[in-house]
Amino acid sequence: MTFCVIQFLFAAVSFAVDADSLKVVADSAYAREDFELAARTYQKIAKTGESAAVCYNLGNCYYRLDDIAHAILWYERASLLSPGDEDIRFNLDMARSKTIDRVTPRHEFFFVTWFRSMTNWMSADAWARLSVVLFVLGLIALAVYIYAHQMWLRKSGFTLAVVLVLATLLGNVCAWSQRNRQTSRKGAVVMAASVVVKSTPSRSGSDLFVMHEGTRVEIRDNSLNEWAEVVLADGKQGWVEKKQIEVI
Question: Which residues contact 86 (CB under 8 A, 6 or more apart)?
Fold first, then answer.
């Protein structure tokens, strides 16, 4: 048992050292503008575990290599892990501006837009931590309501406790929403230079419209082996071959 623990600790230390060494190599390659080497090295780090910083660096590498599709893919992944990061959002928007397709999102209810914007303020872990803090503050406010002797303190404690409990519930919903986005991975990016979207999951299906590299889609049906049904932000939908897109 002790030997197994020692082996595990040794492997963990070796893993951390290897990751740090790779990062030094990747950062050095990026600094001297060897973006191909930097991208390959960051890819190795990403395979050991995604982080927003590594995904962001990969997006920068591919952007400098003028590979816009891969740049958008990795910026999207970075944004998924750290939705509130303004640098990631700025670079993602800049990369999107270089794509061919201009997709106008469908009109949606104000509440939906507001809720999505709010959940994107922070990551799932940050929302979870905030919820814990709000819950503890709510308990303190409840204690004030129960034990305070002055009426104004009891009223204030009760009101604050209700507000904090509601805020805790909202924080948990935001954390769940962010975690669901990270685990479901329904977003994808078109990687082929151009893709003909079909009416049915077959090459003999009718041509509906054409998409170009870098366009983001949402996967609606991923049950088939070679085809996926996708929908654009403007509501257009159809079938594409899975090899032409890559999941975020």
Answer: none
